[in-house]
Amino acid sequence: MDATPSPTAAPTLRTVPVPSGVRLAGRRLAVATMFGSGLSNQTGAAIGSLAFPTLGPVGVVAVRQYVAAIALVAVGRPRPRTYTWRQWWPVLLLALVFAAMNLSLYSAIDRVGLGLAVTLEFLGPLTIALAAARRRVDACCAVIAAAGVVTLMRPTPSTDYVGMALRLLVATCWASYILLNRTVGRRIPGVQGSAAAACLSALVFLPVGLVIAVRNPPSVAAVCYAVAAGVLSSAVPYLADLVTLRRVPAQTFGLFMSVNPVLAAVVGWIVLGQRLGWIEWTAITAVVCANALSILSSRP
């Protein structure tokens, strides 16, 4: 999509002032949209986990990838025949990251719960932000985040080490997703690259979905749960983020997204009955505060 204004429209955009009431309404809409996006994302993940007994995490991820591909293609309209190899290779890697990130996230949710899985997921973008920084405040953020992580992953007699590894894999995948998305965005216009990657990821899961459907035909309820996860955790957040990023700075958007671990913990408690103790809540708060402090103190 070409967002460049036409020459005849440009003077009008520069000379007509925007009323303060309109700006305030736009900011309120942006806040409501960001909150709705985060709540939709975590609710979708919780609803998707209700299909685990029938479809398993792999089956739920497969359906979610199909829904995500449909939504992204409808918006991005990729033209893969025009891509060069320089454009194709980051798209291929992004498709693999899409698949690995969602599969490891849902597998982690199945083993350790929604709140803890999403909290450790935020280590990915936080690590990237801190790795490029050289200030004292960033060192403080790293210490705060590390304290929260150590608390969440402390060894106990009931520690799920596979779940622990999956949580770290989710964080690694999200960091890779951010870096690859930047590369794809620079080399392919609009959101064509992300749409093409989503399609390839869905194709990877197509045989998986067919095998699951043949060997263990799912119930209608399980399929509905999985489709709801795809709509609420992929289509709705993506479209909502497109609206939000036109109204608020990227820094504000990133700050608001920091509350996702808290939303995940609350949704996991209400929808799935996954209660956390005060130690886990303290650790989640530490990771969220570290992410928020890093964003607030960064230069625009």
Provide key terms for this protein:
300 residues; mainly alpha; disordered N terminus; globular
Question: How does this structure look, described?
Answer:
By secondary structure, this protein is an all-alpha fold. The chain has 13 helices and no strands. The protein has helices at 10-15, 20-49, 52-76, 85-112, 114-121, 123-131, 136-152, 161-187, 192-215, 220-244, 250-257, 260-272, 278-296. Helix 2 (20-49) packs across helix 12, helix 7 (136-152) runs antiparallel to helix 13 (278-296) and helix 12 (260-272) runs antiparallel to helix 13. The chain is globular and about 50 Å long. It starts with 9 loop residues before the first helix and ends with a helix. Residues 1-18 have low confidence and may be disordered.
What does the secondary structure layout of this molecule look like, with pairings?
Layout (H helix, E strand, L loop, with lengths): L9 H6 L4 H30 L2 H25 L8 H28 L1 H8 L1 H9 L4 H17 L8 H27 L4 H24 L4 H25 L5 H8 L2 H13 L5 H19 L4
Brief rundown of the structure:
With 300 residues, the protein is mostly helical. It has 13 helices and no strands.
Order of SSEs: HHHHHHHHHHHHH
The end-to-end distance, rounded to whole angstroms, is 26 Å
Tell how many strands the DSSP assignment holds. Answer: 0
Give the proportion of residues in helices: over 70%
Q: Describe the biggest sheet?
A: none
Low-confidence stretches: 1-18
Cα-based radius of gyration, to the nearest Å: 20 Å
Q: What proportion strand?
A: under 5%
Instruction: Give the CA-based shape.
Output: globular
DSSP helix count? 13
Which structural class best describes the helix and strand composition? Answer: mainly alpha
Summarize model confidence as the mean pLDDT: 78
